[in-house]
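Hi again,

Forgot to attach this to my earlier email, sorry! This is the prediction with iron/sulfur cluster bound. I've pasted everything inline since the attachment limit keeps bouncing my files.
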Amino acid sequence: MELDAKIPDGPIAEKWTRHQFEMKLVNPCNKRKYKVIVVGTGLAGGAAAATMGELGYDVHCFTYHDSPRRAHSISAQGGINAAKNYQGDGDSIFRLFYDTVKGGDFRSREANVYRLAELSVNIIDQAVAQGVPFAREYGGLLDNRSFGGAQVSRTFYARGQTGQQLLLGCYQALERQIHLGTVQMYNRHEMLDVILIDGRARGIVTRHLLTGEIEAHMADAVVLGTGGYSNVFFLSTNAKACNVTSIWRAAKKGAGFANPCFTQIHPTCIPQSGEYQSKLTLMSESLRNDGRIWVPTKPGDERPANDIPESDRDYYLERLYPSFGNLSPRDISSRRAKEMVDAGQGVGPLKNGVYLDFRDAIQRLGKDKVSERYGNLFQMYEKITGEDPYSVPMRIFPAPHYTMGGLWVDYNLMTNIPGLFAIGEANFSDHGANRLGASALMQGLADGYFIMPLTLGNYLVDAPSGGVDPDHPAARDAIRECVAIQERLLSTGGKRSVDSFHMELGRIVWDHCGMARNESGLKEALKRIPELREEFWRDVKVPGSGADLNQSLEKAGRVADFMEFAEIMCWDALTRDESCGAHYREEHVTEEGEAKRDDENFLHGAVWEFKGVGEEPVRHEEPLTFEHVPLSQRSYK
Amino acid sequence: MKLKLHIWRQTSPRSKGDFQAYDLDGVSPHMSFLDMLDLLNEQILEEGGEPVAFEHDCREGICGSCGMVINGIAHGPEKLITACQLHMRTFKDGDEIWIEPWRAAAFPVIKDLVVERASFDRIIQAGGYISVRSGSAQDANAIPIPKADADRAFDAAACIGCGACVAACPNASAMLFTAAKAAHLSYLPQGQTERLQRAADMVTAHDEEGFGNCTNHGACQEVCPKGISVDYIGRLNRDVLKATLSGVEVTTR
Ligand SMILES: Cc1cc2nc3c(=O)[nH]c(=O)nc-3n(C[C@H](O)[C@H](O)[C@H](O)COP(=O)(O)OP(=O)(O)OC[C@H]3O[C@@H](n4cnc5c(N)ncnc54)[C@H](O)[C@@H]3O)c2cc1C
Ligand code: SF4
Ligand code: FES
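Structure tokens for the complex follow:
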């Protein structure tokens, strides 16, 4: 597997500008002749499809949703970072770059992260021009808040619906292109495979979710903006349909899968209320700006929160990390919460949460101000738990939320398969081993609006184009494989529901490859996952037929892929014999209980090559160098 | 809790559907309405049947996927929430619950509780955007926007495109949805240039999709999970009138 990151020469601050100049261009009149497939209409896919349509490419865009507006990006709440320095508090592109590299615990590529920070400012301009109603101050200028892992206020937000508003901006741009005829939209189409011809990505196989038709679509390049795979854990904050299928099938066709074990657990979710629950709800991290996190000092304290006096409360983040306090990075906040619960200091009926208390904020700011900042989050919390967070503290607990791992891409966002691009959460991203809050929206939009539409041309100029149709043998083979998988799922005739398998898989991955990992646990998982997969294929029950809307069948296909993918995640966690960011190996911990990196042996991205189901995958390395942010132990004390 | 559910079952767009009754035991008051349907589907599966098809994704009231009429009310008895945010503590042991899909000519039923809402996308395509190319924008703070306007734009932009307004309207009109989008953009300085054209084009598309006329029932606002106000409809109608008076021609689609 060849892994050339293709980082342009020159000083870091000039790389992107220089690269844009040096890339080859497609003549505007010729763009129409190139057909590009985009899978996904989230911030990354939607922005890319709209922008490439504007540029004049013949864009074909696919989503399994009934409308592009429903992509999972819609549910992002808290905000989006940008180095605008509108607050005049000393922010800069370099500082955002620095914070992101450090926050990622030195496992990302400096050049990519710098470009991300650089483009962050354009995103805000773009969004405002589209009509995204960001929060404003009374003077009419844009407002900012601060987010975990940063000491400046650089987060732009739209109440608790930043993702929705950004996605609507992007969706509207996309609908405009559909109207203009540059983008053809395929709703309710699930991508099942990539089609390679002569080693290049030349198309995809899709299933029409209403008619069941499985067919091939050919193109000159394929872009995957299909989001993250947190649902491998079954319980996560991701929308129910989020899955790994598109990128996993690409990996099976030879695309390198980078750092699959880098998964982020979000510190502020509503604790599970019972076994029946299939989805966890995130409470935006922005709440940590004003809420204070605590647990009772005494384990097993049964008193209602408001009856527990100050002296019996442990504001543990403020105590352990005086300078960052409640805004400590996600991985740290999550692990500390788990420790508190494990130590018996958990709160709530199932003792599975910690408090996030707004009492002091309400006293300081008044209820109105708090309501203006967080009103809809409070409402959401109340609807779910039946408790009023204005009068009793919220209960929160960490939950799987975001995946830093994804398809390996070079500086041009192209995978090692020529013509196959991956953008947004689907690629292994710029977040290293841990993503800072409000940086995923930024990355998805930078990839989609500003990077991929430009690097595409550079690829197309020298690539073969046209001349392949859905009758090509490679397309027919790919279709045949997808049909075979579907037939097998429908004919198993087993007894167990897909959900029950998914739940069991999720439990294994959560227990052994979740917030904390160790060698024996990972080995155990690597033993149990293949067993469960074998049972799945023997005993899964998928009712109905493949010829119409069949939600059980859709789920079954996705879970089948998780069953294979989970293994590679554990391989990655096992072989990365260090701790870094969100990857916390219990064997490698500093005296203060933080992740202890091993830069001598692991200063690289791990890129996995698929070798067959159940076969041990091959691990490749992309070495990382840090010239601008000196390697250091993260400290948020 | 134990419940009796009456659920609309329909195998395909052309087939005739009807209500089927199910007894469901073991429902916890902490469950969400969709957790409850999951439980039912597991039971149906166990008994060898085909699970009830319903749309859902985020399960937190933001994606607009879930939509069903519960006991005659779009998104159910509680105000300002979607079906996925409804929790079973709203019901009590022994309750009977009737669940059916949105019903509107412009939202054909696909299967069980799933309807096709692509007509909403086509209304947006007709003009529900500000025409700006990626990378061509000026600095975001170059045009200050009075907070009150930004807030009003936001209130309108909160629409999640669920279609409850249509389901509740006796005329199956989608004017609340259409007006919300138009208002979101027309409160902002960036949205002024295309304002009248947008109004004329979106309302034309709305009518062509087969949505009914608005006759001011206000049922839409009652069920809207995001509290979108019917006042926006008046605002849109005024813009359409202005467009007509100033000779704006509808863009042909
Ligand atoms: C609850 C929540 C809150 C968040 N809040 C924030 C925040 O405040 N700030 C922040 O920066 N980040 C936040 N994030 C993270 C952020 O929202 C996501 O990382 C980001 O939106 C991902 O965007 P995307 O475009 O890569 O993918 P998505 O938005 O997930 O889109 C994926 C698209 O791909 C399509 N798709 C996937 N697979 C297939 C297939 N096989 N066939 C066809 N189509 C397919 C889907 O239909 C969808 O259109 C949050 C995440 C969650 C879960
Ligand atoms: S206006 Fe309200 S009810 Fe209608 S689609 Fe929008 S959110 Fe749903
Ligand atoms: S499932 Fe997303 S709004 Fe209900």
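Chain A is about 35% helix and 15% strand. Residues B 56-59, 61-66, 82, 84 surround FE2/S2 (inorganic) cluster (ligand 3) (CB under 6 Å).

That should be everything now.

G.
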